[in-house]
Design a protein that fits this description.
Elements lengths: L1 H7 L6 E4 L2 E3 L2 H18 L1 H13 L1 H19 L5 H25 L3 H28 L13 H8 L2 E2 L2 E2 L8 H18 L6 H20 L3 H19 L4 H27 L11 H19 L26 H34 L3 H20 L9 H27 L1
Antiparallel strand pairs: 1-2, 3-4
Helix pairs in contact: 1-2, 2-3, 2-5, 3-5, 4-5, 4-13, 5-15, 6-8, 6-9, 6-15, 8-9, 8-10, 8-14, 9-10, 10-11, 10-14, 11-14, 13-14, 14-15
């Protein structure tokens, strides 16, 4: 429940505890969870044993994640700009991205508990969709009355975002693109959840969520989100048609994702020449794409400022004139964590996709094979989406489900060893 509350609580909503003092519950819940986790790991041998089992089986992925978080701390201390902000940003990444994985690996130790975790994420998706629909009907941020006044973050949220004179829905996220990315990521997960929903009502609710996701993505006015959710729909149909031959499905999905990249690249080049602006008389498509191209033109040469370790979290735009944001996660990483950080990220993403592919191909349990295949699609879409988005709000959800996959495969391996010993 603590994980769900952390994901659903908007970061811009704070509680006033005294005059001039506002506290975000997220920053209270997670440190408390960390303290409880440390006590359990120190005093309960079963939890320590569990951690060792998962780390031994998935050492490469977990070491790469730890290395990515560590390089963020190092780049913060070495930053030539605002060191305190950079280090604080790195610690926040450890708290919001690393800790949830440790909690899942420690406490969700069996396939049944992992399925409950997936159900919890489905519930998070349902609440976010309902909030999004309310926001769309009101054409303003639902929690605007709860935002702490006077902060720059709050002002950015309250001013809202529009496209085609339409309010862009953010739901419980800070950014409409983050909400769209979350919906795209969850689509294959919801598809998997329909496999073992125990009641007819549960299947109806999840089915309604699946049908509503394209509509919800449309309310964010995210072109990338619409393209990727369409790819996920095709992949889902492929999963159903080829469900008895999961390896063929994964190969088809990989080809589909490659085709999506080629399509997006071709579209990008066409937009550079304004060839498609007749679809939008306001020229907003060309303006948006030109802005991203400008970010690359300014950002790539800026890597030379600190090529190895980067300049620290939240410092990428501090030294680039005329650039206030970066809409490309990979460019952000190479600027903030250097080429070393980018290398760690790329290797990690490749290793995650390979592990999911192997899980879908060779896992003994049918549910685990199908879950691995669905996560393969989810993470493929996530990584593609990051080409046009540098915000990492959704990474908490993706890391939680990745940890669930790692835990599930470890429990299956343990069960297989017990059968052999018997």
């Amino acid at each position: 429940m603590a994980l769900a509350l952390t994901m659903l609580w908007p970061s811009y909503i704070v509680i006033q505890v005294s005059l001039g003092l506002w506290i975000n519950p997220q920053r209270l819940i997670l440190p408390i969870c960390l303290l409880i986790w440390l006590i359990h790991v120190l005093y309960v041998p079963a939890y320590r044993s569990r951690l060792r089992q998962v780390f031994d089986r998935h050492r490469t992925i977990l070491n790469l994640i730890a290395a990515g978080l560590l390089i963020a701390v190092i780049s913060g201390f070495l930053s030539p700009f605002n060191k305190s902000q950079a280090v604080w940003g790195a610690l926040n990444q450890i708290l919001f991205l690393g800790l949830p994985m440790l909690l899942v690996i420690t406490y969700f130790r069996h396939s049944r508990s992992v399925k409950k975790l997936i159900g919890l994420m489905v519930a998070v998706a349902l609440v976010s969709q309902l909030v999004g629909l309310v926001e769309f009907s009101q054409q303003q941020v639902v929690f605007s009355s709860l935002v702490a006044p006077g902060t720059e973050h709050a002002e950015q949220v309250l001013e809202g975002k529009t496209r085609y004179d339409q309010h862009r829905v953010t739901s419980v996220f800070d950014n409409p693109l983050s909400y769209a990315q979350f919906l795209v990521f969850m689509f294959p997960v919801l598809l998997f959840f329909t496999r073992f929903a125990e009641t007819i009502l549960g299947r109806v609710v999840v089915g309604a969520q699946l049908l509503a996701i394209p509509i919800s993505v449309w309310t964010t006015a995210s072109r990338t989100g619409l393209a990727l959710v369409l790819l996920c729909v095709f992949a889902g149909v492929g999963a159903w048609v080829l469900r008895a031959r999961i390896e063929r499905y994964l190969q088809a999905t990989l080809l589909l994702m490659i085709a999506g990249v080629l399509f997006a690249s071709t579209t990008f080049l066409l937009l550079m020449t304004d060839s498609l602006t007749f679809f939008d008389g306001t020229q907003s498509i060309a303006a948006s794409t030109t802005a991203r191209l400008f970010q690359l033109v300014v950002g790539i040469p800026a890597i030379a400022v600190s090529p190895v370790y980067g300049v620290g979290i939240h410092q990428a735009t501090n030294f680039m004139q005329g650039l206030t944001s970066i809409d490309n996660y990979y460019l952000t990483v190479v600027l903030e964590k250097g080429l070393l950080g980018l290398l760690i990220l790329v290797v990690l993403q490749w290793k995650v996709l390979v592990s999911l592919f192997q899980g879908a191909k060779s896992s003994r349990a049918a549910d685990l094979r199908y879950f691995s295949a669905c996560l393969f699609v989810s993470f493929s879409a996530l990584y593609l989406f990051q080409i046009t988005l540098s915000v990492i709000e959704v990474f908490t959800v993706s890391n939680v489900l990745l940890a669930g996959f790692l835990s599930w495969t470890c429990s299956e391996n343990r069960a297989k060893e017990e059968r052999i010993d018997a």
